[in-house]
Amino acid sequence: MTHTCTKVTVRQRAIRNDKISLYLDYYPAVRNPETMQMSRREYLGIYIYAHPKNEMEREFNNDMLNKAEAIRCIRVQSLINEEFGFLDKHKMKADFLAYFEKMCRNKDQKWLFVYQHFYNFVKGQCTFGEVNVDLCKRFRDYLLNARQLKHAGHRISLNSAAGYYSTFRGLLKIAYRDKLIRENINDYLEKIEYQDVKREYLTLAEVKQLAATPCDIPVLKAASLFSCLTGLRISDILNLQWEDFGIAPDQGYCLRIRTQKTKTEATLPVSYEAYELCGKPGTGKVFKGLTRSMINYPLKNWLKKARIKKHITFHCFRHSFATLQIAAGTDIYTVSKMMTHRNVSTTQIYAELVNEKKRESANKISLK
Asked: What is the pTM of this model?
């Protein structure tokens, strides 16, 4: 159904205090596709003097009438394009924070961190009508100087700020797609560039050294070594279910999962050694009792016992898997699929790390 024949007229309505309210009259009425209600009038919130007393008031009236006419022209164009967002008066007043929080429910933990930072930035109040380019640019500046949520004495890193802002821009993209905001704000925003950082990883000898070292929390040791052998992120390991395991056509074990971070559906082969780390097969979660808190101080203590002095986090086990695979001769494309990377260029970083290691090995042999 088209509304190109609908006429839009600027009309006037007398109100109190010798003022006139300007509104648009639609004929025939147009239907709001979301509420399904028919609309004839749109009050513009523009008022003029009913009886201007001087030149200043007459000039003011002319300016306001010109503004109303400009809005009328925009509405005609919107009707031709069948865009009816202007009819929904409640949308701009809706709670953007409530929408943000709802979106976090099906996302990874980083979304919650971004939500909390944005909540602090807007002091706990923000409507869709307030979400504009200026607000988003100021949130970018806020993130570049923000303090950590759990450790207020420290600022968030540049790469964390870059990741948080990228997530926030992803939210804006979804909101625009769902027609909750009127323009694609991302077109006017500058992203925060990531800073190159050293990617730490364990050598095969160090992984074996870690495996031979007792850990006070057995499930932490099993999950860590499982990550070294599969490349799975902590978020995927925490959610890993026994039902995710299956038997591949070659009769080996495999995992059928949907990754928490990228929401990628993947079938990943699993070695028998990695499968053994999971313990006795059962139901529900594989690594029962494993929590995120364990990957902080308990992990550091275990690494210290193993006499590994590198700054290793749980995510470094994923780096270790990739570098060990490439060092062993596995092609980058296969490693990329195992890592569930969307682009092979992401996996190329690990190939460069291995090249550095090869150079170190080459320089160890000298005739001098």
From this structure: 0.58
Cα–Cα distance for residue pair 85/159, rounded to 1 Å: 36
The Cα 314–Cα 219 span in angstroms is 13
3-class SS at 31?
Answer: strand
Q: What are phi and psi of 11, to 5 degrees?
A: -125, 165
Q: What's the CA gap between 43 and 162, in Å, rounded? A: 42
Phi, psi of 223 (to 5 degrees): -65, -40
Q: Can you give the C-alpha Rg of the chain in angstroms?
A: 30
Q: Are 302 and 281 in contact (CB under 8 A)?
A: no
**Which tens digits make up the pLDDT trace of 29-54?**
887 666 667 888 888 999 999 999 99
In 3D space, the residue among 317, 318, 323, 320 whose CA is nearest the CA of residue 339 turns out to be: 318
Tokens describing residue 187: 């077109």
Tell me how far apart the alpha carbons of residues 88 and 32 are, in angstroms, rounded to a whole number: 7
Cα separation, 28 vs 15, whole angstroms: 25
Q: Is residue 222 a contact partner of residue 277, using CB atoms and an 8 Å limit?
A: yes
Helix, strand, coil share (%) of the chain residues, nearest 5: 50, 15, 35
In whole angstroms, give the CA distance from residue 335 to residue 326.
Answer: 7
Tens-digit pLDDT profile for residues 241-283: 999 999 888 888 999 888 877 677 888 899 999 999 999 999 9
List, in sequence order, every beta strand (DSSP E) within the chain.
7-15, 19-31, 38-49, 245-247, 253-258, 265-270
Token pair 């279910």 is found at 241
- Residue 23 DSSP code: E
Give the Å distances, CA to CA, from 225 to 234, 280, 347: 12, 16, 21
Measure the CA–CA gap between 174 and 100, rounded to whole angstroms. 11
Burial of 13 (0-12, 13-18, 19+ CB in 10 A): exposed
CA distance 63 to 368: 88
**In angstroms, what CA-CA distances link 183 with 174, 187, 279, 348?**
12, 9, 52, 36
